[in-house]
Here is the input.
Amino acid sequence: MIIVQDGCFALQTPHTSYIFRKDAAGNLLHLYYGEKIEIEEEGLAKVCEIMAPVITNQNGCSLIADTAQPNLCLDDVCLEISSRGKGDMREPYVELVLADGSSTSDFRYENYRIEESLLTPEGLPGAYEEKGNGQSLVITLADRNSKVKLELVYGVMEDCDCLVRYGRLVNSGEETVTVNRLMSMQLDMEAGVLKITDFHGDWAREMAKNETILRQGKYVNDTSVGFSSNRANPLFIWADTETTQEYGDCYAVNLLYSGNHRESAQAGGHGKMRILAGMNPDYLCWQLEAGEAFCSPQAVLTYSHQGYQGVSGQLHYFVREHIVRGEWKHKERPILINSWEAMYFDVQEKKILKLARTAANAGMELFVLDDGWFGKRNSDASSLGDWYDNKEKLPTGLAGLSEKIHKLGLKFGIWVEPEMVSEDSDLYRKHPDWAVRIPGQEHALGRNQMVLDLTREEVRNYIIESMSDVFFRGKVDYVKWDMNRNLSDYYSQGLAPRHQGEFGHRYILGLYQVIQTLTDRFPHILFEACASGGNRFDLGMLCFMPQIWASDNTDAISRARIQNSYSYGYPQSVIAAHVSGCPNHQTLRRTPLTSRFAIASVGILGYECNLSDASMEDMEEIKVEIELYKKWRNVLQFGDWYRLYEEADKKSVYDMDVIRWNMVSADKSKAVGIMLQGEILANYSHHVFKTRGLDDAKKYHFYNRALKYDIHRMGDLINTMAPVHVKQDSLLHDAISKFIRLDGEKEDKVVSGAVMNRHGVPLAQNYAGTGYGQNTALYQDYDARIYFMEEV
Ligand code: GLA
Here is the structure.
């Protein structure tokens, strides 16, 4: 709900309040963002009066912007937005250069309006509200130094503790103005010290969680690779230093944007913090012509007094309900088999059909033909852009293959990388100017490929038409939309020199237009975004494509950490995760199939390995796991996802788990728990599984996935039980292993939600080097467990 009274504004969500007001000179003073303060419409001005800073004298060194308020220095107040040149020395929200070369702006309040819908920045994706419960507040500010107006657009949704925000500049003058920066969100806070959490990495090691205590100076999380990037995800969290997973003040911002971004926290000299988030200004130099408007991407902002977990839960809900859209929004996603790690570029119809048949027999639902099916694509050195069938590999083309896959009872999906062109391709030979490059100069290659210039309409149209043809002729049910290199040599041969500073942002605008057209044209297709794994894992892409391939790293241990980090801002319904071969192709690590399944099941489950060569035992296990996943799919994909284990949750220094999670259905009648063990520690054998988010008042049947173990697991300890001596790994040992399997521990209790949430369930004792008893849990390194909870 939006409340306005006498130049005072309050944005009320179910549990938060965001309050600001204009002062006598028309500056917008930010007053409060935090736990909800109930306010009657008539009471807002009073509340604001009390919250407003008391300013009675000037400080040394301060600049006074307006003699109407002779003691107010902009550097020493919390502002809704800021610019350069009038005494606020902190990083600004907006930066303009006027035709005379000056770069001072002075935006003052002009008016406001309220719209009964959520507004979206032109050409950019936006959060949406389908039940008519969204409202927008638009505040217009006018620059005293130019004819530029700045609109601050805020959106609230009645069902959600998130706000959305963006800025819109309108040039109502006659001269061009250069926009060097227009951020999406500024939040000034009365806070001297903050703990910042953000997520860094690179290819195959996305989302390494990073914590920084900021007391003085500035902290920046940004990217310049052209995309939201695996180096610095735009999710940015800040909290009180005492905040825990469950308690304390915690804030987060994320961007609905896929290009270069920047989030910063700056400790001002007066015990205040400024948080900014938006497009990276280093890559923005936009010519705003007379009469034109320019929007920053939308930012989502959230606050919780229930710690990191509270913020995550609110963002998950926001993503599920207000970002992901279309047919697949709430629809259970199919279990897929992907050809990449099974055969890489060596795709052949015969092999494909064999793999598909095995997958179908195991209960999988979708076959995805990854890279290698088109042009002369035998390696990553050629053919991007040539989206016609390779008839040597697919004699009956995509159309024929798709028919055969469909006949097996599977859906058919395809991999494409539409934004790219190989130097060795018919497309590049025909249209060399369509690639991003500076004429006459060497350009950088990434994975041997170049980027198509999506700022150009003819290029966008080519992509739209060539992709439509692929999707149509392949009767495609699913598309993996990949993008495998960073931007370099920023330049478009379609832009005049003075507009070259717009290239990075125009590329993203072009991309959005292409994927909007295609997702509108093919509403039934399930689209999955990918960028060498998680190089473009952001809310911008999720506005068009309901899920994203989170990382090319499919190793269960790495993935557990990566997915755990994604959980800070993204629900598992948008995270694609696959079970792959062993040893793992990225880390060469060996992990049990059960663990690979456990981790991949917390997300959109797929398989990406050569099932055609899998052992009978593995195939049997895979079948069981698929059945299990189908039974629990709704909770696993859409349940509320809780992190149960972070460094701070360790019960002792000996605690060696990698992760513990649980997912709880919306009605809290069902839950699934996952526990992944790291290295084994001898003689440390009593574990408790403590949940979050179950209904205290309900009773649950708590049980585990019962496992059976190969006796090889015990090595020559078999001789402590066998009546005859068995030489380890001998034929006899192998023969016994065919008939005798060891029973894993069984958990089977009825427990109240209150006990589960507060105390947890004590689990069967671990093997501790002193004998294997009746209900001993046999853990090895990297073993996982899955627990189920059903209301009784
Ligand atoms: C990228 C993707 C992989 C795979 C390959 C194909 O690396 O992230 O999943 O599709 O491209 O070339």
User: Anything to note?
Assistant: Residues 340, 370-371, 415, 482, 484, 530, 532-533, 549, 552 surround alpha-D-galactopyranose (CB under 6 Å).
